[in-house]
Write a structure and sequence with these properties.
Layout: E1 4-7, E2 28-32, H1 35-39, H2 45-64, E3 69-72, H3 83-94, E4 98-102, H4 107-115, E5 122-126, H5 135-142, H6 150-161, E6 165-166, E7 169-170, H7 201-213, H8 230-243, H9 245-248, H10 268-273, H11 278-290, H12 296-320, E8 336-337, H13 348-360, H14 365-379, H15 383-393, H16 399-410, H17 427-433, H18 454-465, H19 467-470, H20 477-485, H21 488-504, E9 507-508, H22 511-517
Parallel strand pairs: 1-2, 1-4, 2-3, 4-5
Antiparallel strand pairs: 6-7, 8-9
Helix pairs in contact: 2-7, 5-12, 6-12, 8-11, 11-12, 12-16, 13-14, 14-16, 14-18, 15-16, 18-21
The chain binds flavin-adenine dinucleotide, ligand DLZ and iron/sulfur cluster (SF4).
Flavin-adenine dinucleotide binds near residues 306, 369 and 410.
Amino acid sequence: MSKPLLLVLGDQLSLSLTTLRDAPDNAVVAMCEVAEEARYVPHHIHKIGLFMAAMRHFAQALRDKGFKVHYSRMDDADNTHSIIDEAERIAGQYGCDEIRVARPGEWRLWNSMQARQNPMITWQILEDDRFFTTPDDFSQWASGRKQLRLEYFYREQRKRTGLLMEGDSPAGGKWNFDHDNRKPIDAALNFPALPTHRQDALTQEALSDANRHFPDHMGALEGFNLPVTRRQALVDLNHFIEHGLADFGRYQDAISDSSPFLYHSRLSAALNIGLLSPHEVCEAAQLSYLAGDAPINAAEGFIRQILGWREYVRGLYWTQMPAYKRENQLGFQRDLPAFYWNADTDMRCLQRAIEMTIDNSYAHHIQRLMVTGNFALLCGVKPEALCDWYLAVYADACEWVELPNTLGMVLHADGGLMGSKPYCASGKYIDKMSDHCQHCRYSPKQVTGPKACPFNSLYWHFLEANAETLNKNPRMKLIYGSLKRMSDEKREAIRQQAEHFLARLETSPSYGQRCHTEGYIAKESK
Ligand code: FAD
Ligand code: DLZ
Ligand code: SF4
């Protein structure tokens, strides 16, 4: 009789996991804390702490359910510190002849598992059915389409799941209420504080082990407040539904100089490691709408992020990898600006987005897209450098979701698969949506001169530099019209301003080198 090893990865912490269902009595569950996964990019210390604490709690929950669990700790003398080697070592130790694992969240692991040739142990990769769709579902939807647009994918998901549907029609009469969801920051707003999670002995020990093993990683654990158990994740979900959801839509695009979370849910990490299911999160938002507590623009906007974007990027990732990771359609070559690691910049919006990232291992979507992302796009940062940064610094980052957002949505490196046009913007956009500029030494109204906001000249410089590729795009026609109407002198002055700025922009050689030679600086929020 076969004896399987059920390998549960760090982002598979769900009791409903396919690997754990109908497990035979002789099965052994393996969970492996390994240094390789903490270092392949230099993860933020909150992220490492989250994985270590949540994995240890989940192993305990499995034991309580009667599973036989082998848990490899970071300190174990025989730990090989590689997930694949560790799984095979444990399989050998328990006499298992098969390793079962649900599809991992990253292609590199999936590929290594597929390629593994061990005559004693077979690897069986099961489909991860914790999502609304599988990669096969996405592939079927995509087949034969000229363009893959989120909006059409999302409408099908609504019909398929019945979420926010009234018969065959969308609730509220429209599929998308984004038009109502573009309010800028307002000084009178009161954002709900996140629940504070108690750290029990298991969590404290995991965080202390993380700190001891990875002392040079970005951030400090004093401010750690991520949910590490299902119970804590449910507290966060209920809190968001009660206090955040109703205003989520309206202020979804706003940026605050002081609040990192605004009305965002901060549920991404709990969702991505499996403490919450996307189904229960969407259903909770729908219930709140049906009870009259959240308006349709909020519930629809929120559900679209999960049922739409989250599923869409996952489908794109699995159907496009591995070629997707090598895409660089705009031919960007610049290394990452050095201040992405320490927030040492006088550009206030970037300084605050990066400080908040260092403090919380979190930034909301508009900070990622329109501040750090937009700046990297305008400067022409190469995809691999930017992707590694996003993957390292955010607690919710797993490659299936990080890569399409960074390489596709931010850098337009996939030639428009993810977005029909690049999300490039000048300082005017940041000034409109945020309260950063009043604290900044630059002026968003000036394009040239010593006080001019660097986003402004970089914006026009980016459009000029990439005109050959982008001016054919119908959605860019208007802006290229404005560029064309500019006088030659003005264009030349802007070009010089941008080039002067770029020539002085300090870049960071590579994350690996920086990690080992300098360490990362944890800054207190101001
Ligand atoms: P909310 O604003 O409250 O949104 C609710 C949920 O919707 C999120 O928890 C998330 O699960 C989902 N969601 C929202 N936007 C997206 C999106 N664009 N793609 C996929 N899911 C989405 N999200 C990650 O989960 N992991 C990442 O590694 C990641 N990297 C990103 C990198 C860049 C450059 C950009 C622009 C976006 C990235 N996102 C990523 C998407 C998004 O920014 C985060 O999901 C969101 O900020 C998480 O905060 P929240 O839970 O408060 O989200
Ligand atoms: C991100 C991460 C970290 C820091 N540590 C571990 C770990 O020790 N063990 C583990 O199984 N997974 C870890 N992860 C997540 C992995 O890098 C990877 O994203 C997932 O395992 C893919 O399913
Ligand atoms: Fe950012 Fe420019 Fe505003 Fe300064 S002036 S905060 S750099 S947008």
